[in-house]
Amino acid sequence: MYTQSVEISAAADDENDARLAAFEAKLDRGIAIEADDWMPAAYRETLVRQISQHAHSEYVGMLPEANWISRAPSLERKCVLLAKVQDEAGHALYLYSAAETLGTSRDEMLAALLSGRAKYSSIFNYPTLTWADVGTIGWLVDGAAIINQVPLTRCSYGPYARAMVRVCKEESFHQRQGFDVLATLCSGTPEQRALAQDALDRWWWPAVMMFGPPDAQSSHNERSMRWKIKHFTNDELRQRFVDQTVPQAAHLGLTIPDPALRFNAERGHYDFGTPNWDEFFAVLRGGGPCNRERLGARVAAHDDGAWVRAAAAAHALKRAERATSVA
Ligand code: 3HC
If I label 80, which of 87, 181, 247, 327 is the partner at 20 to 30 A Cα–Cα? Predict the structure, then answer.
Protein backbone atom coordinates (compact mmCIF):
# COMPACT_ATOMS: atom_id res chain seq x y z
CA MET A 1 0.00 0.00 0.00
CA TYR A 2 2.74 2.42 1.09
CA THR A 3 4.84 1.64 -2.03
CA GLN A 4 1.85 2.27 -4.26
CA SER A 5 1.11 5.68 -2.66
CA VAL A 6 4.78 6.67 -3.01
CA GLU A 7 4.67 5.66 -6.71
CA ILE A 8 1.45 7.68 -7.22
CA SER A 9 2.86 10.82 -5.59
CA ALA A 10 6.14 10.43 -7.51
CA ALA A 11 4.14 10.24 -10.77
CA ALA A 12 2.12 13.29 -9.73
CA ASP A 13 5.36 15.18 -8.99
CA ASP A 14 6.72 14.22 -12.41
CA GLU A 15 3.52 15.43 -14.06
CA ASN A 16 3.67 18.70 -12.13
CA ASP A 17 7.32 19.17 -13.10
CA ALA A 18 6.43 18.64 -16.75
CA ARG A 19 3.59 21.15 -16.56
CA LEU A 20 5.80 23.69 -14.77
CA ALA A 21 8.48 23.24 -17.43
CA ALA A 22 5.87 23.76 -20.19
CA PHE A 23 4.53 26.86 -18.39
CA GLU A 24 8.00 28.39 -18.06
CA ALA A 25 8.86 27.50 -21.67
CA LYS A 26 5.76 29.48 -22.80
CA LEU A 27 6.89 32.47 -20.68
CA ASP A 28 10.39 32.27 -22.17
CA ARG A 29 8.92 32.27 -25.69
CA GLY A 30 6.64 35.22 -24.91
CA ILE A 31 3.49 33.14 -25.41
CA ALA A 32 0.57 34.47 -23.35
CA ILE A 33 -0.82 32.30 -20.56
CA GLU A 34 -4.59 32.04 -21.01
CA ALA A 35 -7.33 31.42 -18.46
CA ASP A 36 -7.73 27.71 -19.26
CA ASP A 37 -3.95 27.03 -19.35
CA TRP A 38 -2.30 25.23 -16.46
CA MET A 39 -0.47 27.69 -14.20
CA PRO A 40 1.29 27.42 -10.81
CA ALA A 41 -1.10 28.23 -7.95
CA ALA A 42 1.22 31.06 -6.82
CA TYR A 43 1.13 32.62 -10.31
CA ARG A 44 -2.68 32.60 -10.16
CA GLU A 45 -2.71 33.98 -6.61
CA THR A 46 -0.39 36.90 -7.33
CA LEU A 47 -2.35 37.78 -10.46
CA VAL A 48 -5.66 37.79 -8.54
CA ARG A 49 -3.94 39.95 -5.93
CA GLN A 50 -2.50 42.47 -8.41
CA ILE A 51 -5.40 42.64 -10.89
CA SER A 52 -8.09 42.93 -8.20
CA GLN A 53 -6.14 45.65 -6.40
CA HIS A 54 -5.64 47.40 -9.72
CA ALA A 55 -9.43 47.24 -10.23
CA HIS A 56 -10.01 48.54 -6.68
CA SER A 57 -7.65 51.44 -7.48
CA GLU A 58 -9.73 52.40 -10.50
CA TYR A 59 -12.99 52.03 -8.56
CA VAL A 60 -11.82 54.09 -5.57
CA GLY A 61 -9.84 56.37 -7.90
CA MET A 62 -13.12 57.78 -9.26
CA LEU A 63 -13.82 59.52 -5.95
CA PRO A 64 -11.14 62.26 -5.69
CA GLU A 65 -12.00 63.81 -9.08
CA ALA A 66 -15.76 63.12 -8.87
CA ASN A 67 -15.65 65.57 -5.98
CA TRP A 68 -15.09 68.34 -8.57
CA ILE A 69 -17.57 67.40 -11.33
CA SER A 70 -20.25 69.74 -9.92
CA ARG A 71 -17.64 72.50 -9.41
CA ALA A 72 -15.74 72.39 -12.71
CA PRO A 73 -15.05 75.97 -13.95
CA SER A 74 -16.77 75.46 -17.33
CA LEU A 75 -19.24 73.16 -19.07
CA GLU A 76 -16.40 71.85 -21.25
CA ARG A 77 -14.22 71.00 -18.21
CA LYS A 78 -17.25 69.36 -16.57
CA CYS A 79 -17.92 67.17 -19.65
CA VAL A 80 -14.24 66.18 -19.92
CA LEU A 81 -14.05 65.31 -16.22
CA LEU A 82 -17.32 63.33 -16.43
CA ALA A 83 -15.88 61.33 -19.33
CA LYS A 84 -12.66 60.65 -17.42
CA VAL A 85 -14.38 59.48 -14.23
CA GLN A 86 -16.69 57.31 -16.33
CA ASP A 87 -13.61 55.80 -18.01
CA GLU A 88 -12.19 54.89 -14.59
CA ALA A 89 -15.40 53.00 -13.80
CA GLY A 90 -14.98 51.12 -17.08
CA HIS A 91 -11.35 50.32 -16.27
CA ALA A 92 -12.48 48.86 -12.94
CA LEU A 93 -15.07 46.64 -14.66
CA TYR A 94 -12.49 45.54 -17.25
CA LEU A 95 -10.04 44.60 -14.54
CA TYR A 96 -12.57 42.86 -12.27
CA SER A 97 -13.57 40.80 -15.34
CA ALA A 98 -9.91 39.98 -16.05
CA ALA A 99 -9.47 38.86 -12.44
CA GLU A 100 -12.63 36.71 -12.62
CA THR A 101 -11.01 34.66 -15.43
CA LEU A 102 -8.66 33.36 -12.70
CA GLY A 103 -11.50 31.87 -10.69
CA THR A 104 -12.25 34.58 -8.17
CA SER A 105 -15.65 36.33 -8.09
CA ARG A 106 -16.77 39.96 -8.13
CA ASP A 107 -18.42 39.44 -4.73
CA GLU A 108 -15.20 38.03 -3.21
CA MET A 109 -13.13 40.91 -4.57
CA LEU A 110 -15.59 43.59 -3.42
CA ALA A 111 -15.86 41.96 0.01
CA ALA A 112 -12.07 42.14 0.30
CA LEU A 113 -12.08 45.83 -0.65
CA LEU A 114 -15.03 46.91 1.49
CA SER A 115 -13.73 45.04 4.54
CA GLY A 116 -10.37 46.84 4.25
CA ARG A 117 -8.51 43.55 3.63
CA ALA A 118 -7.57 44.43 0.02
CA LYS A 119 -5.36 47.35 -1.03
CA TYR A 120 -5.94 50.04 -3.60
CA SER A 121 -3.43 52.62 -4.79
CA SER A 122 -2.08 54.82 -2.00
CA ILE A 123 -2.43 57.92 -4.18
CA PHE A 124 -6.21 58.00 -3.83
CA ASN A 125 -6.01 58.60 -0.09
CA TYR A 126 -5.10 62.26 -0.53
CA PRO A 127 -7.67 65.09 -0.68
CA THR A 128 -8.52 67.13 -3.79
CA LEU A 129 -8.59 70.62 -2.27
CA THR A 130 -8.73 72.83 -5.38
CA TRP A 131 -9.47 72.64 -9.10
CA ALA A 132 -5.71 72.55 -9.71
CA ASP A 133 -5.70 69.16 -7.94
CA VAL A 134 -7.92 67.77 -10.71
CA GLY A 135 -5.40 68.86 -13.33
CA THR A 136 -2.49 67.58 -11.26
CA ILE A 137 -4.11 64.15 -10.81
CA GLY A 138 -4.58 63.86 -14.59
CA TRP A 139 -1.02 65.07 -15.28
CA LEU A 140 0.87 63.20 -12.53
CA VAL A 141 -1.32 60.27 -11.41
CA ASP A 142 -2.56 59.25 -14.84
CA GLY A 143 0.90 60.03 -16.18
CA ALA A 144 2.36 57.62 -13.60
CA ALA A 145 -0.37 55.10 -14.37
CA ILE A 146 0.60 55.16 -18.07
CA ILE A 147 4.24 54.47 -17.21
CA ASN A 148 3.19 51.63 -14.92
CA GLN A 149 0.50 50.20 -17.22
CA VAL A 150 2.07 50.29 -20.69
CA PRO A 151 4.50 47.45 -19.75
CA LEU A 152 1.46 45.54 -18.43
CA THR A 153 0.13 45.38 -22.02
CA ARG A 154 2.96 42.81 -22.40
CA CYS A 155 2.13 40.99 -19.16
CA SER A 156 2.40 37.21 -19.47
CA TYR A 157 -1.27 36.74 -18.50
CA GLY A 158 -3.31 37.28 -21.69
CA PRO A 159 -6.60 38.66 -20.30
CA TYR A 160 -4.73 41.25 -18.17
CA ALA A 161 -2.45 42.31 -21.02
CA ARG A 162 -5.40 42.73 -23.39
CA ALA A 163 -7.43 44.71 -20.82
CA MET A 164 -4.45 47.06 -20.48
CA VAL A 165 -4.39 47.95 -24.19
CA ARG A 166 -7.71 49.80 -24.06
CA VAL A 167 -7.03 51.19 -20.57
CA CYS A 168 -3.74 52.73 -21.70
CA LYS A 169 -5.35 54.40 -24.72
CA GLU A 170 -7.87 56.10 -22.43
CA GLU A 171 -5.19 57.02 -19.86
CA SER A 172 -3.47 59.10 -22.55
CA PHE A 173 -6.62 61.26 -22.83
CA HIS A 174 -6.73 61.46 -19.00
CA GLN A 175 -3.14 62.69 -18.80
CA ARG A 176 -3.58 65.22 -21.64
CA GLN A 177 -6.71 66.77 -20.15
CA GLY A 178 -4.96 67.14 -16.78
CA PHE A 179 -1.92 68.76 -18.35
CA ASP A 180 -4.25 71.11 -20.26
CA VAL A 181 -5.96 72.21 -17.02
CA LEU A 182 -2.56 73.05 -15.52
CA ALA A 183 -1.30 74.77 -18.68
CA THR A 184 -4.39 77.00 -18.53
CA LEU A 185 -3.81 77.84 -14.85
CA CYS A 186 -0.08 78.40 -15.37
CA SER A 187 -0.74 80.90 -18.17
CA GLY A 188 -3.36 82.67 -16.03
CA THR A 189 -3.24 85.06 -13.11
CA PRO A 190 -0.61 84.86 -10.34
CA GLU A 191 -3.33 83.38 -8.08
CA GLN A 192 -4.00 80.64 -10.65
CA ARG A 193 -0.30 79.91 -11.01
CA ALA A 194 -0.02 79.71 -7.21
CA LEU A 195 -2.94 77.24 -7.19
CA ALA A 196 -1.08 74.99 -9.66
CA GLN A 197 2.18 75.18 -7.68
CA ASP A 198 0.35 74.39 -4.42
CA ALA A 199 -1.22 71.29 -6.02
CA LEU A 200 2.18 70.10 -7.34
CA ASP A 201 3.70 70.63 -3.89
CA ARG A 202 1.06 68.33 -2.36
CA TRP A 203 0.83 65.68 -5.05
CA TRP A 204 4.45 65.22 -6.21
CA TRP A 205 5.71 62.83 -3.55
CA PRO A 206 2.50 60.72 -3.29
CA ALA A 207 2.77 60.28 -7.09
CA VAL A 208 6.44 59.23 -6.83
CA MET A 209 5.41 56.68 -4.17
CA MET A 210 2.60 55.26 -6.38
CA PHE A 211 5.14 52.91 -8.01
CA GLY A 212 5.44 50.94 -4.79
CA PRO A 213 8.13 50.54 -2.14
CA PRO A 214 11.84 50.59 -3.04
CA ASP A 215 12.91 47.43 -4.85
CA ALA A 216 14.79 46.33 -1.75
CA GLN A 217 11.49 46.32 0.19
CA SER A 218 9.31 44.91 -2.59
CA SER A 219 7.94 41.50 -1.65
CA HIS A 220 6.69 40.66 -5.17
CA ASN A 221 9.17 42.29 -7.57
CA GLU A 222 11.53 39.37 -8.06
CA ARG A 223 8.88 36.70 -8.71
CA SER A 224 6.63 39.01 -10.78
CA MET A 225 9.63 39.83 -12.99
CA ARG A 226 10.53 36.14 -13.35
CA TRP A 227 6.96 35.34 -14.36
CA LYS A 228 6.90 38.37 -16.75
CA ILE A 229 3.93 39.89 -14.94
CA LYS A 230 6.15 42.93 -14.40
CA HIS A 231 8.76 43.87 -16.98
CA PHE A 232 10.33 46.64 -14.88
CA THR A 233 10.90 47.03 -11.16
CA ASN A 234 9.25 49.69 -9.00
CA ASP A 235 12.41 51.82 -8.92
CA GLU A 236 12.96 51.55 -12.69
CA LEU A 237 9.43 52.81 -13.40
CA ARG A 238 9.76 55.51 -10.72
CA GLN A 239 12.94 56.77 -12.39
CA ARG A 240 11.18 56.80 -15.77
CA PHE A 241 8.35 58.88 -14.25
CA VAL A 242 10.74 61.47 -12.77
CA ASP A 243 12.76 61.70 -16.00
CA GLN A 244 9.60 62.26 -18.03
CA THR A 245 7.86 64.69 -15.65
CA VAL A 246 10.66 67.10 -14.73
CA PRO A 247 10.80 68.72 -18.23
CA GLN A 248 6.98 68.93 -18.26
CA ALA A 249 7.00 70.84 -14.96
CA ALA A 250 9.65 73.19 -16.37
CA HIS A 251 7.46 73.78 -19.44
CA LEU A 252 4.59 74.76 -17.11
CA GLY A 253 6.88 77.05 -15.12
CA LEU A 254 6.33 74.99 -11.96
CA THR A 255 8.94 73.96 -9.39
CA ILE A 256 9.10 70.32 -8.29
CA PRO A 257 9.29 70.25 -4.46
CA ASP A 258 12.53 68.24 -4.24
CA PRO A 259 15.74 70.14 -3.37
CA ALA A 260 17.80 67.06 -4.26
CA LEU A 261 16.46 66.98 -7.84
CA ARG A 262 19.22 67.45 -10.44
CA PHE A 263 20.12 65.95 -13.78
CA ASN A 264 22.99 63.46 -13.50
CA ALA A 265 24.71 63.57 -16.89
CA GLU A 266 26.77 60.50 -16.02
CA ARG A 267 23.67 58.40 -15.36
CA GLY A 268 21.57 60.17 -18.01
CA HIS A 269 18.78 60.40 -15.44
CA TYR A 270 17.56 62.78 -12.75
CA ASP A 271 18.80 62.17 -9.23
CA PHE A 272 16.02 62.84 -6.74
CA GLY A 273 15.36 62.80 -3.02
CA THR A 274 14.04 59.94 -0.87
CA PRO A 275 10.27 59.69 -0.52
CA ASN A 276 8.83 59.59 2.99
CA TRP A 277 8.39 55.79 3.16
CA ASP A 278 7.01 56.01 6.68
CA GLU A 279 4.14 58.07 5.23
CA PHE A 280 3.71 55.54 2.41
CA PHE A 281 3.44 52.53 4.70
CA ALA A 282 1.18 54.48 7.07
CA VAL A 283 -1.18 55.14 4.15
CA LEU A 284 -1.07 51.42 3.24
CA ARG A 285 -2.07 50.63 6.84
CA GLY A 286 -5.10 52.94 6.49
CA GLY A 287 -3.54 56.04 8.05
CA GLY A 288 -3.71 58.37 5.05
CA PRO A 289 -5.67 61.67 5.08
CA CYS A 290 -8.66 60.16 3.23
CA ASN A 291 -8.52 56.36 3.75
CA ARG A 292 -11.57 56.31 6.03
CA GLU A 293 -13.54 58.68 3.77
CA ARG A 294 -12.74 56.75 0.57
CA LEU A 295 -13.61 53.32 1.97
CA GLY A 296 -16.70 54.78 3.70
CA ALA A 297 -17.92 56.19 0.38
CA ARG A 298 -17.43 52.81 -1.32
CA VAL A 299 -19.21 50.91 1.49
CA ALA A 300 -22.13 53.39 1.39
CA ALA A 301 -22.40 53.12 -2.42
CA HIS A 302 -22.40 49.31 -2.14
CA ASP A 303 -25.09 49.36 0.54
CA ASP A 304 -27.21 51.88 -1.39
CA GLY A 305 -26.97 49.63 -4.46
CA ALA A 306 -28.23 46.49 -2.64
CA TRP A 307 -31.79 46.98 -3.96
CA VAL A 308 -30.50 47.22 -7.56
CA ARG A 309 -28.59 43.95 -7.17
CA ALA A 310 -31.67 42.28 -5.61
CA ALA A 311 -33.97 43.54 -8.39
CA ALA A 312 -31.53 42.40 -11.10
CA ALA A 313 -31.23 38.95 -9.47
CA ALA A 314 -35.06 38.64 -9.18
CA HIS A 315 -35.45 39.66 -12.83
CA ALA A 316 -32.81 37.13 -13.93
CA LEU A 317 -34.54 34.39 -11.89
CA LYS A 318 -37.95 35.23 -13.44
CA ARG A 319 -36.46 35.10 -16.94
CA ALA A 320 -34.78 31.74 -16.19
CA GLU A 321 -38.04 30.31 -14.81
CA ARG A 322 -39.92 31.56 -17.89
CA ALA A 323 -37.28 30.07 -20.20
CA THR A 324 -37.53 26.65 -18.50
CA SER A 325 -41.37 26.72 -18.44
CA VAL A 326 -41.58 27.27 -22.24
CA ALA A 327 -38.77 24.74 -23.01
N1 3HC B 1 -0.58 51.57 -3.10
C2 3HC B 1 -1.05 50.55 -2.34
N3 3HC B 1 -0.36 49.39 -2.15
C4 3HC B 1 0.83 49.28 -2.77
C5 3HC B 1 1.37 50.29 -3.58
C6 3HC B 1 0.60 51.48 -3.72
N7 3HC B 1 1.03 52.50 -4.47
N8 3HC B 1 2.57 49.87 -4.06
C9 3HC B 1 2.77 48.65 -3.53
N10 3HC B 1 1.73 48.30 -2.77
C11 3HC B 1 1.59 47.06 -1.99
C12 3HC B 1 1.51 45.84 -2.88
O13 3HC B 1 0.17 45.59 -3.27
C14 3HC B 1 2.05 44.77 -1.91
O15 3HC B 1 1.06 44.48 -0.97
P16 3HC B 1 0.22 43.09 -1.05
O17 3HC B 1 1.23 41.98 -1.01
O18 3HC B 1 -0.69 43.14 0.14
O19 3HC B 1 -0.52 43.15 -2.36
C20 3HC B 1 3.13 45.52 -1.14
O21 3HC B 1 2.78 46.90 -1.22
C22 3HC B 1 4.54 45.29 -1.68
O23 3HC B 1 4.64 45.96 -2.92
P24 3HC B 1 5.32 45.24 -4.19
O25 3HC B 1 6.05 46.25 -4.95
O26 3HC B 1 6.08 44.03 -3.74
O27 3HC B 1 3.98 44.76 -4.94
P28 3HC B 1 3.72 44.65 -6.51
O29 3HC B 1 4.79 43.83 -7.15
O30 3HC B 1 2.33 44.21 -6.62
O31 3HC B 1 3.92 46.15 -7.06
C32 3HC B 1 2.39 47.76 -8.00
C33 3HC B 1 2.99 47.15 -6.72
C34 3HC B 1 3.52 48.46 -8.76
C35 3HC B 1 1.30 48.74 -7.64
C36 3HC B 1 1.85 46.60 -8.84
O37 3HC B 1 0.91 45.91 -8.05
C38 3HC B 1 1.17 47.05 -10.12
O39 3HC B 1 1.83 47.40 -11.09
N40 3HC B 1 -0.17 47.03 -10.12
C41 3HC B 1 -0.93 47.33 -11.37
C42 3HC B 1 -1.06 48.82 -11.61
C43 3HC B 1 -1.81 49.50 -10.48
O44 3HC B 1 -2.44 48.90 -9.66
N45 3HC B 1 -1.73 50.81 -10.46
C46 3HC B 1 -2.40 51.54 -9.39
C47 3HC B 1 -2.91 52.82 -9.89
S48 3HC B 1 -4.26 52.60 -10.97
C49 3HC B 1 -4.46 54.14 -11.51
O50 3HC B 1 -3.69 54.98 -11.23
C51 3HC B 1 -5.64 54.38 -12.36
C52 3HC B 1 -5.59 55.67 -13.10
O53 3HC B 1 -6.62 55.63 -14.04
C54 3HC B 1 -5.77 56.84 -12.24
Answer: 247
Query: Alpha-carbon distance 253 to 244, whole Å?
Result: 15
262-264 and 269-271 strand pairing = antiparallel
pLDDT at 11: 66
Residue from 219, 235, 281 whose mutation best tests the ligand 1 pocket (most atoms within 8 A of CB): 219
8 Å CB contact between 88 and 137: no
Nearest residue to 139 (alpha-carbon basis) of 65, 52, 219: 65
pLDDT of residue 17: 83
60 lines ligand 1 (CB under 6 A): no
- What pLDDT does residue 235 have? 98
Sequence-separated (6 or more) residues with CB below 8 Å from residue 292? 286
Residue 1, pLDDT score: 57
Whether this prediction's pTM lies above 0.90 is answered by yes
